Amino acid sequence: MSEQIVHFEPKIVEPGELLAAGFQQAYTWETVDQISKLWDQVYTPRMHEFVNGTGTCLGICYQCTEQGFHYMAAAALTTLEQVPAGMETMTIPAHRYVAVTVQGDPLKKIGAAFEFIEKWIVENGHQRLDNALALEVYDERFTNDTDLENSALDIYVAIK
Questions:
Q1: C or N terminus of the chain, fewer CB within 10 Å?
Q2: Is 114 left (phi over 0), alpha (psi -120 to 50) or beta?
């Protein structure tokens, strides 16, 4: 079986300030495969609790170091009022991002997308934002477990 070629079309986006609520945890690069357990606490059992949700979920990566990073599995919100009990909130200031869309079983291609963006940033004279902020944007195109081959999500990496 031949390896599938992955192609990305980068663009610069400026979505403005983002509001989110969910659960966060620190990960090492060796424990990155455990992120799905964090989503299991938010996506299916609690999404109905977000009265101010936009319908989009965010995987928020921040404070990246050589040892690891922090990750928040969250719902994007219109306001931080009436956040479900036990959830943490985050306000992400407006930034410029390099964005790519990941299509066709995107969860298997996230790593390739991040590698592509990192290379593109350097080759195009940009610099990552100091706190290494990155977002996984799961909107109506993401089908979760139902039809991943026709699913899509966006990856945003903040730049200066």
A1: N
A2: alpha
Nearest residue to 42 (alpha-carbon basis) of 27, 70, 12, 21: 21
How many residues would you count in the chain? 160
Rounded Cα distance, 45 and 25, in Å: 18
Tens digits of residue pLDDT in 103-145: 988 778 888 999 999 999 999 999 998 777 999 999 999 987 7
Distance CA 158, CA 43 (A): 24
Dihedral, 53, 54, 55, 58 alpha carbons, nearest 10: -90
The pTM for the full model equals 0.90
Does residue 74 lie within any of the structural domains? Answer: yes
Query: How many domains does the structure of the chain reveal?
Result: 1
| CA gap 139, 126 in Å, rounded | 27
In a domain, 159, yes or no: no
Start-to-end C-alpha separation, the chain:
41
Domain with 27, as residue range(s), is 11-150
Amino acid present at 141: R
